[in-house]
Specification:
The protein is 35% helix and 29% strand. It has 218 residues and is α/β, with parallel strands linked by helices.
């Protein structure tokens, strides 16, 4: 069971803490606001009111022993930055920082954050992709400009083999797996070139944002 410290209990930090706890992680939730601590204390393993920029306060809760620490402090960038530095000094294996701007994100990377997230931008980008392509089921960014998507097979692909579709040649995308309904069950498999696409198939593909945008959208 991974132990995760979530520091900062705004909407993002609170939602993350509850989801992690529901998924079976051991969650240590931290914030300076006692009201926020009271709201979440029954949903996580430990909820503590303290100043996350205080090294000794963090050590008192054994934050240096967690597997992952998420710095989810909202408006106070200086506090977020100092907290991230302290966590890296503690040797926390994986430090995730929430950034509100691209400049803040780059600063977090420069000080050694293992992962930087920008929830508002990522949510906006995902919504834009879904509105632009109604067949999009889900998307996961692997790196800058490279995305994995789950994509409902468009009519143009139905009853055609993967070899016939020439996805790499025509669209410069890679088909990784197919999710196919079989009655009440679902089969997930890596297809051969001769596999024929069925109308209800969900295609899991990887490609650049530009290449994925060229896929049929009807």
């Amino acid at each position: 069971m991974p132990k995760v410290a979530v520091i900062g209990l705004g909407r993002f930090g609170t939602a993350l803490s509850r989801r992690l706890s529901a998924a079976g992680a051991e969650v240590l939730a931290i914030d300076r606001d006692g009201r926020l601590i009271d709201e979440i204390k029954d949903d996580v393993d430990v909820a503590v009111r303290l100043d996350a920029t205080d090294r000794q306060a963090l050590l008192s809760q054994e934050v240096d022993k967690v597997d992952v620490a998420v710095v989810a402090i909202g408006e106070n960038f200086e506090a977020s930055l100092l907290t991230a530095v302290v966590l890296k000094q503690f040797g926390v294996p994986h430090v995730v920082c929430r950034a509100q701007t691209a400049i803040h994100a780059e600063i977090f990377r420069q000080i050694g954050a293992d992962e930087v997230v920008q929830p508002e931008q990522e949510t906006g980008a995902h919504l834009a992709r879904r509105l632009a392509n109604p067949r999009l089921v889900d998307a996961f960014r692997l790196a800058d400009g490279l995305t994995l998507i789950e994509f409902s097979a468009p009519a143009e692909f139905h009853e055609k083999s993967i070899r016939h579709l020439e996805l790499r040649a025509k669209y410069d995308v890679n088909l990784v797996v197919i999710r196919r309904r079989q009655g009440e069950a679902q089969r997930v498999f890596s297809p051969s070139p001769e596999e024929v696409i069925q109308p209800d198939d969900v295609l899991v593909m990887i490609g650049s944002d530009e290449a994925l945008a060229r896929l049929p959208k009807e």
